[in-house]
Amino acid sequence: MRPAAARRQRGVAMIIALVIVALATVLAWKVGFDSFLERQRTLAILSVEQAMQFGLGAEALAADVLSRQLQQTPQVNLAQPWAQASPAIPITPAEAADGPPIGTLQGSIQDMDGRFNLNNLGHLLPNGTEDPAPLLLFQRLLVAAHLEPKWAGIARDWIDADHTPSQPYGAEDDVYTRLTPPYWTGNWPMTSPTELMALPGFGRNRYLAIEPYVTALPTAIAKINICTAPALVLDSLANLPGEYSSDPSALTAGRKSGCFPDLSTFQATVGPATWAQIQNMVTDQGSYFRLTTRVRLGTAEFTLYSLLQRGSDGKVVPLLRSFGTL
After folding, report:
1. Beta strands 282-283 and 224-225: pairing type?
2. pLDDT by residue (tens digit) across 231-273?
3. In the chain, where the domains are located
4. Pairwise CA distance, residues 100 & 4, whole Å
5. What CATH topology corresponds to 2-112+288-323?
6. Paired strand residues for 90
7. Which residues contact 71 (CB under 8 A, 6 or more apart)?
8. Strand 89-91 versus strand 282-283 pairing type
9. 203: alpha, beta or left, given left = phi > 0 and alpha = psi -120 to 50?
10. Pairing mode, if any, of strands 300-310 and 316-323?
11. Of 12, 48, 259, 275, which alpha carbon lies 20 to 30 A from 72's?
12. Do 291 and 305 form a contact (C-beta atoms < 8 A)?
C-alpha cells in the first residue's frame, strides 16, 4: 500500500504543480496584455493630441488666407484661392526633416453663407411677429430637395421660444414628450443642422437629402451669398424650379472666373416681383466659413471641423470646433 500511496501523492503534487504553472502563465499573459492595451491607449491619446495640434495649425493658416483675401475684396466667390482644392500635405517632423513623412494633412474651406441658415427661421420682425420670408424660402428648398414642406414649420417650432405649434403643421413639447424616449423641444437656435434629425419622423435619409443646402449660423439674419450658393438654393431663392439645377455644368463653368450669377444678373432673372421679396436676403459677400481638416498619422485618422467668422475688424477667428461630425 505504501508504494501506491506514494504514487498518489506524486500525482497530486504534479497536478498542483501544473495548476500553479497554468495560473502563472495566465497571470503573465494578462499582465503582458494589459501592458499592451495601456501602451495602445497611450499611443492613441498621443496621436489624437498630435493630430489636434496639426489641425489647429491648419485652422490658423486658413484664417490667415481668408483674412488676406477678404482684405483685397469683400466679395466671396468660388474662383478665389481659398476655394481651390488642395492636395494632401505630407507631415514630416522637424527633427527628422529628411526622413519619411509620418502622415498627411488636407484641408478644404466652404462658404457657409451660400447655404440657407436654419436659424433664420427664428427671425422676428420689428413688431415681434415671426418673419414669414425664411419659412417660405425653406419650404421651397425642401420641395426642391424632394422633401415635404411641412418640415419648415416643425423646424421653426424647434427654434422659437414660444410653445404654440405653427399652423397648419408644427410640433411643440406636447408632441416630443409623447415620443420614446421623451424629450423637450430646443426652443433655442440650432448649433448644428444635425438637430433636424431630432424632429419627430425627420430621420437620417431626409437629413442627408437637405444637408448640402443648410447650415446653422449664430445669427437669425444671415444673407445667402449667391456667388457660392448651390443650384437648388438659387432655384428656391428665385422661386423658379430648375432655373439653375437643370444645367449644373453651366453654373460650375460660370463660377470658374468669378461670381456667377452676380447680383444684377440674378435680379434680372428673378424679376421685379420676386426681387422685392428677396433682395434683403441675398448678398455677394461672406462672413462664415467651414474648414474641414483631415489628419492621417499612421493608421489613425482625425477630422476637425472649424466654423470661422470674419469679424467687423476684418479678422477671421474660430467660433466653433467639432470632431468627426457636421
Report:
1. parallel
2. 999 999 999 999 999 999 999 999 999 999 999 999 999 999 9
3. 2-112+288-323, 115-222, 224-281
4. 70
5. Pantoate--beta-alanine Ligase; Chain: A,domain 2 (3.30.1300)
6. 104
7. 314
8. unpaired
9. left
10. antiparallel
11. 275
12. yes
Count Cβ atoms within 10 A of the Cβ of residue 241 and give its class: 0-12 exposed, 13-18 middle, 19 or more buried: middle
Query: Which of 32-36, 150-154, 300-304, 308-312 is most confident?
Result: 150-154
Domain 115-222 has CATH 3.90.550.10: no
Per-residue pLDDT tens digits for 68-89 = 999 999 999 999 999 998 899 9
Rounded to whole angstroms, the Cα distance separating 294 from 9 reads 67
Cβ contact 196:202 at 8 Å:
yes
Task: Locate 144 and state its grid cell.
Answer: 426642391
Burial of 308 (0-12, 13-18, 19+ CB in 10 A): buried
User: What are the strands of the beta sheet with 288-297, ordered from one edge?
Assistant: 89-91, 103-111, 288-297, 300-310, 316-323
SS3 of 94-155: HHHCCCCCCEEEEEEEEEHHHCEEHHHHHCECCCCCECHHHHHHHHHHHHHCCCCCHHHHHH
The Cα 202–Cα 179 span in angstroms is 13
